[in-house]
């Protein structure tokens, strides 16, 4: 699968559960802007048939190169980023929850989830839009997970799928800074992720980011009870050049740490 087909598949899956994304996309195009995607992100579980080790070869097979490793100690996550030699190809960020660092109770819930994943689940790029590869959990288990790790609750309820696309501010014409984007979104009533401030990072870091708070949907769990759960969000990124004149191509862990909170329950 070429990357164009891959991102078209992801976009469809994404707007189905995050209607805000199409609305925000249309808002930018109505202002005469071309919406170029800087990157997407995925989440997964450690030590299972869809862990980073299993997913990485699929990304590499689309022509991507491994760029960097990251560690988020408090959130109990590791991550890797990938970039493509074709500058038109969006970057990819994949994080993984280190299940063994969670409480025994959460570990037990997640063990019963990952034990249902087909050992051959990673059969090509389509796996990144497959969603649940297990039966839904109970609402009580969802509550237990979300108390300890919002990430664990999100991943267990939504499965393997893209969690955000990112508008590249570098490609916008009339909107030239992040505060303008935030003002525009707020005028249109889109909630902004305020963790650590609405704007994450400073130009000296070479990457400045903001994001919306995820859309929410009512989900029915295996016990028949429902919960309002966060789905997916939209991100905005401005990249800067380093001293050598090269545009920064990576990610900034301290920004990412706050972007993860775009799927926290509000
Ligand atoms: C990914 C958070 C990190 C970024 O651009 O730093 C990120 C996630 O929420 O899964 O997207
Ligand atoms: Ni991002």
TrEMBL record:
One of its GO terms (molecular function) is dioxygenase activity. Its cofactor is Fe(2+). Its EC number is 1.13.11.93. The keyword Oxidoreductase applies. It is an enzyme of class 1 (oxidoreductase). The keyword Iron applies. Keywords: Dioxygenase, Iron, Oxidoreductase. InterPro entries: HGLS. PANTHER family: 2-OXOADIPATE DIOXYGENASE_DECARBOXYLASE, CHLOROPLASTIC, DUF1338 DOMAIN-CONTAINING PROTEIN. Belongs to the 2-oxoadipate dioxygenase/decarboxylase family. This is 2-oxoadipate dioxygenase/decarboxylase. It comes from Amphritea atlantica.
């Amino acid at each position: 699968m070429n990357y164009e087909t891959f991102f078209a598949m992801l976009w469809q899956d994404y707007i189905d559960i995050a209607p805000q994304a199409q609305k925000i996309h249309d808002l930018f195009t109505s202002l005469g802007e071309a919406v170029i995607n800087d990157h997407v992100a995925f989440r997964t579980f450690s030590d299972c048939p869809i862990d980073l080790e299993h997913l990485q070869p699929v990304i590499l097979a689309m022509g991507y190169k491994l760029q960097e490793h990251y560690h988020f100690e408090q959130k109990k996550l590791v991550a890797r980023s990938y970039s493509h030699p074709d500058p038109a190809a969006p970057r990819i960020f994949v994080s993984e929850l280190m299940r063994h660092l969670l409480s025994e109770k959460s570990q037990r819930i997640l063990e019963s989830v990952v034990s249902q994943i087909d050992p051959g689940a990673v059969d090509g790029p389509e796996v990144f839009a497959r969603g649940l590869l297990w039966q839904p959990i109970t609402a009580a288990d969802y509550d237990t997970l979300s108390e300890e790790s919002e990430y664990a609750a999100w991943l267990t309820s939504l499965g393997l799928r893209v969690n955000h696309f990112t508008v590249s501010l570098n490609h916008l014409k009339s909107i030239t800074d992040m505060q303008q984007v935030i003002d525009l979104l707020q005028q249109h009533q889109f909630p902004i992720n305020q963790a650590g401030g609405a704007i994450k990072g400073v130009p000296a870091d070479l990457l400045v980011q903001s994001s919306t708070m995820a859309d929410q949907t009512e989900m029915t769990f295996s016990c028949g009870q429902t919960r309002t759960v966060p789905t997916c969000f939209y991100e905005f990124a401005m990249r800067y050049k380093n001293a050598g004149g090269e545009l920064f191509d990576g990610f900034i862990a301290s920004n990412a740490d706050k972007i993860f909170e775009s799927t926290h329950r509000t």
